[in-house]
UniProtKB/TrEMBL annotation:
Belongs to the V-ATPase 116 kDa subunit family. Residues 85-112 form a coiled coil. Its main location: membrane. Essential component of the vacuolar proton pump (V-ATPase), a multimeric enzyme that catalyzes the translocation of protons across the membranes. Required for assembly and activity of the V-ATPase. It is found in: Membrane. It comes from Hibiscus sabdariffa. It comes from the Eukaryota. This is V-type proton ATPase subunit a. The chain crosses the membrane at residues 426-444, 464-481, 516-533, 634-655.
Length: 697
C-alpha cells in the first residue's frame, strides 16, 4: 500500500511542494555572482551594508530634487549595460556634489535677491514716512516731551526722550526702518509700545507684493515699518525686538537724492541677480534631466546589489577554508536548476573551486509553496486570503489591494479617519447613482404616457441640474481616488458658487477644471427656470387652442348627446386653472432643487450606519470577548463568550439589521421614488364573491 501511494503523481494543486534543506559552501570569489544568479532564479530561501545603503540615499536625493524642480520622468528612460558598482558609486558621488553645490549657490543668491528686494520696497515705502516726519519732527518732539512732563503720577517711568536729551548731546527724533511678516505686525507694534512705554511713533504700510520666506520657502505678505524714537537705549530695545520677531532692518537715508541713488543701484543689482538665478535654474534642470534618464536603471541596479549583499550577510564565513557557508530551503523539483545556476556562477567567476551543494536533514517545518498557473492562481489567492500573501519564487510579499479596503488599516491610528472619509464618499456615490436612476425611470414613465412635455421640461433639466452639481462632485471623488490627490473637495464645491473664477491652486484635480466648473454652474442655473416656466404656459396655450377650435380632439360619446349630463370625465377635461398649474409646477421645481441637496445629504445615513455597526462590533469584540479571554479563568471566559454571543445575535444582527432595513426603506420611499413615482392612482377592486365574503368575515 505504501509503495502504491509513493508511486502516485504529486498533487501540485492540492498540496504544498516537498522541500529540502540544503547547504551551500561557496568560494569567496564566486559568492557575489552565485547569490546574484540565485536571486534571478528565485527558488532558494536562505535562513538566517552600508555601501549600497549610501548609494540608495543618493538616488532618493536625486529623485526628490527632480520632483521638487517639477520635472517629469522620461517616458522612455535610457537602458544601457550595467556599469561596475565602483564606477556607479563615483558617478553618484559626483552628481551629488554637483547638485549640493548648485543648491547652496542658488540658496545664497535667492537670499541675496530677497534681501535686495526687501531693501528696495523699504526704500520706496519708508520714503513717504520720512518726508512727512522731517516736517513735523520738532513739533512731535515737543509734544512728546510736554506729555511726559505733565504726568506727575508716573515718576518711575520717566520719558526715554527726556533721559536721552539730558545724558547725550543728540537731539531730535531718530528712526529704524525695516520689514516684517504681516501676521506679526500687530504683536510687533504692541511690544514696541510696551518696551518704549509709549514713547515712539510707529508707521506701517503693506509691501504690495509677496516675498519669499527663506525658512518656509513660501511667499508671504509683509509690512514695511518705520519706528521713530529718541535715545540710544530705545534704539537698543527696538533692535532686540526686531531680531526676536524676525524683522529685517534696512538703513534708509534722510536725503531724497540719496534714496533715489540707492534705489537705482538696488534695482540694477536685482536685474543682474534675476539673470543669474534663471541661468542657475536652467543649468540645474539640465543636470537633473540628464540624471532622470538613468535614474530608474541606477535604482534597479543598486536595489539588486543591496539585496545581494543583504543575502551575503546571512552567510557564515569559514576562516579556515576561506569560503562562505549558507543554508536554505528549496523545492525538490528546483534542485537541478539551482545546481545549474551555481555551476554557471563558478564558470563566470573563473573560480578554481566549485560550489558545493548538498541536502541536509531538516528538523524544523519547511515553508509552504504551491505551484500555480494563470488559471489556478486566482483560486490560490482566495485560499491565501487567510494569510493574503503573494510569492516571488519562494518569497511571499503583500501588495496594496487594487479594490476594497486593505486589512492593514485595521488597528492603525488613522483607521477611523480613513474609513470615515471612504464611507462618506461611497455614500454620496451610491446616492447620486440611485437618484439618477430614479430620474431615468421618470423618462420611461413619460414615454409610456406619450407626455413629451415631461421629457423636455422635466426630465432633461433635472438631469442637467443634478449632474452639474452632484454628478460633478462624484466625478471629483473618483478622480481623487485614482490620482491620490490631496485636494480639498469641500473647498472646491463651496467656492464653485462663491468664487467660480478664482484660481483653484492646489485643489485643481485636472486641466480645465475651472472653466468646466463655470459651465456646469451656468447649466445648473439655467435648469431651474427651464423646469419652472415653460410647462405651465405651454399647457395654457394648448388648452386655449383646443377650446378655440384650432385643435379638435376625438369627441367622447357624451358630446354627441346634447341632453346628456356632463360627467366627471367631461368636467376634468374642460377645467383648467393656470394659477393652480403654475403654483404646482413651482412647488415641484423648488422641491426638486432643494431636494437635490437634502436627498444627497440624506444618503450619508449609510455612512453613519456603517460607522455605528463597525464601532459596536469593535467594542463587543475587544472589550468583551478579548478582555474575558485574557483571564485564566474558565468561568469568566464562559461569561464573556455568552455576553459576546448575546450582543452579536440580538444587537448586531437583529437591532442593527432592523435599523438598516428602516433606513434603506426610507431612502427608497423618499429619495428614490419621489423622482418618478407619484402614487396618485386608485386600486383595482373587481366584483368578486370571494372578496365580498372576505370583507364580511
Amino acid at each position: 500500500m505504501e509503495k502504491f501511494i509513493d508511486n502516485l503523481s504529486s498533487m501540485d494543486l492540492m498540496r504544498s511542494e516537498k522541500m529540502s534543506l540544503v547547504q551551500l559552501i561557496i568560494p569567496v570569489e564566486s559568492a557575489h555572482r552565485a547569490v546574484s544568479y540565485l536571486g534571478e532564479l528565485g527558488l532558494l530561501q536562505f535562513r538566517d551594508v552600508k555601501r549600497c545603503g549610501e548609494m540608495s540615499r543618493k538616488l532618493r536625493f536625486f529623485k526628490y530634487q527632480i520632483i521638487k524642480a517639477g520635472l517629469l520622468s522620461p517616458i522612455h528612460p535610457v537602458v544601457e549595460p550595467d556599469v561596475e558598482l565602483e564606477e556607479l558609486e563615483i558617478q553618484l558621488s559626483e552628481h551629488e556634489h554637483e547638485l549640493i553645490e548648485m543648491n547652496s549657490n542658488s540658496e545664497k543668491l535667492r537670499q541675496t535677491y530677497n534681501e535686495l528686494l526687501e531693501f528696495k520696497i523699504v526704500l520706496l515705502k519708508a520714503g513717504s514716512f520720512l518726508v512727512s516726519s522731517n516736517n513735523h519732527a520738532v513739533a512731535k518732539e515737543r509734544e512728546l516731551s510736554e506729555n511726559v512732563h505733565s504726568n506727575h503720577n508716573y515718576d518711575e517711568a520717566s520719558s526715554l526722550i527726556e533721559q536721552e536729551m539730558r545724558t547725550t548731546d543728540q537731539s531730535g527724533l531718530r528712526f529704524i526702518s525695516g520689514i516684517i511678516c504681516k501676521s506679526k505686525a500687530l504683536k510687533f507694534e504692541r511690544m514696541l509700545f510696551r518696551a518704549t512705554r509709549g514713547n515712539m511713533l510707529f508707521n506701517q504700510a503693506p509691501a504690495g507684493e509677496e516675498i519669499m520666506d527663506p525658512l518656509s520657502a513660501e511667499k508671504v505678505e509683509k509690512t514695511v515699518f518705520v519706528v521713530f524714537f529718541s535715545g540710544e537705549q530705545a534704539r537698543t530695545k527696538i533692535l532686540k525686538i526686531c531680531e526676536a520677531f524676525g524683522a529685517h532692518c534696512y538703513p534708509v537715508p534722510d536725503d531724497l537724492s540719496k534714496q533715489r541713488q540707492i534705489t537705482r543701484e538696488v534695482s540694477s543689482r536685482l536685474s543682474e541677480l534675476e539673470v543669474t538665478l534663471d541661468a542657475g535654474i536652467r543649468h540645474q534642470n539640465k543636470a537633473l534631466t540628464s540624471i532622470g534618464y538613468h535614474l530608474t536603471q541606477w535604482m534597479n541596479m543598486v536595489g539588486r546589489e543591496k539585496a545581494v549583499y543583504d543575502t551575503l550577510n546571512m552567510l557564515n564565513f569559514d576562516v579556515t577554508k576561506k569560503c562562505l557557508v549558507g543554508e536554505g530551503w528549496c523545492p525538490i523539483f528546483a534542485k537541478a536548476k539551482i545546481q545549474e545556476a551555481l555551476h554557471r556562477a563558478t564558470v563566470d567567476s573563473n573560480s578554481q573551486v566549485g560550489i558545493i551543494f548538498h541536502v541536509m536533514d531538516a528538523l524544523e517545518s519547511p515553508p509552504t509553496y504551491f505551484r500555480t498557473n494563470h488559471f489556478t492562481n486566482a483560486y490560490q489567492e482566495i485560499v491565501d486570503a487567510y494569510g493574503d500573501a503573494h510569492s516571488s519564487g519562494l518569497i511571499k510579499f503583500r501588495d496594496p489591494y487594487p479594490f476594497g479596503v486593505d486589512p492593514s488599516w485595521r488597528g492603525s491610528r488613522s483607521e477611523l479617519p480613513f474609513l470615515n472619509s471612504l464611507k462618506m464618499k461611497m455614500s454620496i456615490l451610491l446616492g447620486v447613482a440611485q437618484m439618477n436612476l430614479g430620474i431615468i425611470l421618470s423618462y420611461f414613465n413619460a414615454r409610456f404616457f406619450h407626455n413629451s412635455l415631461d421629457i423636455r421640461y422635466q426630465f432633461v433639466p433635472q438631469m442637467i441640474f443634478l449632474n452639474s452639481l452632484f454628478g460633478y462632485l462624484s466625478l471629483l471623488i473618483i478622480i481623487k481616488w485614482c490620482t491620490g490627490s490631496q485636494a480639498d473637495l469641500y473647498h472646491v464645491m463651496i467656492y464653485m458658487f462663491l468664487s467660480p473664477t478664482e484660481d483653484l491652486g492646489d485643489n485643481e484635480l485636472f486641466w480645465g477644471q475651472r472653466p468646466l466648473q463655470i459651465v456646469l454652474l451656468v447649466l445648473a442655473l439655467v435648469a431651474v427656470p427651464w423646469m419652472l416656466f415653460p410647462k405651465p404656459f405651454i399647457l395654457k396655450k394648448l388648452h386655449s387652442e383646443r377650446f378655440q377650435g384650432r385643435n379638435y380632439g376625438m369627441l367622447i360619446p357624451s358630446e354627441f348627446d346634447p341632453d346628456a349630463e356632463p360627467g366627471p370625465a367631461r368636467e376634468r377635461q374642460e377645467e383648467f386653472n393656470f394659477s393652480e398649474v403654475f403654483v404646482h409646477q413651482m412647488i415641484h421645481s423648488i422641491e426638486f432643487v432643494l431636494g437635490a441637496v437634502s436627498n444627497t445629504a440624506s444618503y450619508l445615513r449609510l455612512w453613519a450606519l456603517s460607522l455605528a455597526h463597525s464601532e459596536l462590533s469593535t467594542v463587543f469584540y475587544e472589550k468583551v470577548l478579548l478582555l474575558a479571554w485574557g483571564y485564566d479563568n474558565i468561568v469568566i471566559r464562559l461569561i464573556g463568550l455568552a455576553v459576546f454571543a448575546f450582543a452579536t445575535a440580538f444587537i448586531l444582527l437583529m437591532m442593527e439589521t432592523l435599523s438598516a432595513f428602516l433606513h434603506a426603506l426610507r431612502l427608497h420611499w423618499v429619495e428614490f421614488q419621489n423622482k418618478f413615482y407619484h402614487g396618485d392612482g386608485y386600486k383595482f377592486k373587481p366584483f368578486s364573491f370571494a372578496l365580498t365574503m372576505d370583507d364580511d368575515d
